[in-house]
């Protein structure tokens, strides 16, 4: 399953860091952050709990960039 979420990120480097961190999460097959459109496209692994993955993603985003926010 693939979903797109709005993300508030301040710089392209931060977007890259968030993308790399998201791709490491269990339950995410791939992730792509667009600084220009302020969106994150996530392809979830089969059987993944979307709610749990998003909850963990939000925590990791805050660790990478405190001012960044994922709206899900």
Short description:
GO terms for molecular function: metal ion binding. It comes from Candidatus Ornithospirochaeta avicola. The chain is α+β, with helices and mostly antiparallel strands.
Would you mind describing this structure in some detail?
With 72 residues, the protein is of the alpha+beta class. The protein contains 2 helices and 4 strands, in the order E-H-E-E-H-E. It has a 4-stranded antiparallel β-sheet with strand order 2-3-1-4. Helix 1 packs across helix 2. The longest helix has 15 residues, at 50-64. The chain is globular and about 35 Å long.
Write the layout of secondary structure elements.
Blueprint: E1 2-8, H1 12-24, E2 28-34, E3 39-44, H2 50-64, E4 69-71
Antiparallel strand pairs: 1-3, 1-4, 2-3
Q: What is the percentage of strand-forming residues?
A: 25-35%
Tell me the domain tally: 1
* Strand arrangement in the largest pleated sheet: 2-3-1-4
The number of helical elements comes to: 2
CATH topology: Alpha-Beta Plaits
Listing every helix as H and every strand as E from the N terminus to the C terminus, the arrangement reads EHEEHE
CATH top level? Alpha Beta
Protein name: Heavy-metal-associated domain-containing protein
GO molecular function, one term: metal ion binding
Organism: Candidatus Ornithospirochaeta avicola
Pfam families: HMA (PF00403)
């Amino acid at each position: 399953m693939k979903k797109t979420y709005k993300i508030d990120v301040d710089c392209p480097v931060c977007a890259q860091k968030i993308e790399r961190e998201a791709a490491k999460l269990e339950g995410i097959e791939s992730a792509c952050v667009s600084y220009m459109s302020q969106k994150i496209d996530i392809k979830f692994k089969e059987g993944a709990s979307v709610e749990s993955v998003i909850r963990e993603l939000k925590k990791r985003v805050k660790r990478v960039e405190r001012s960044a926010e994922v709206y899900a």
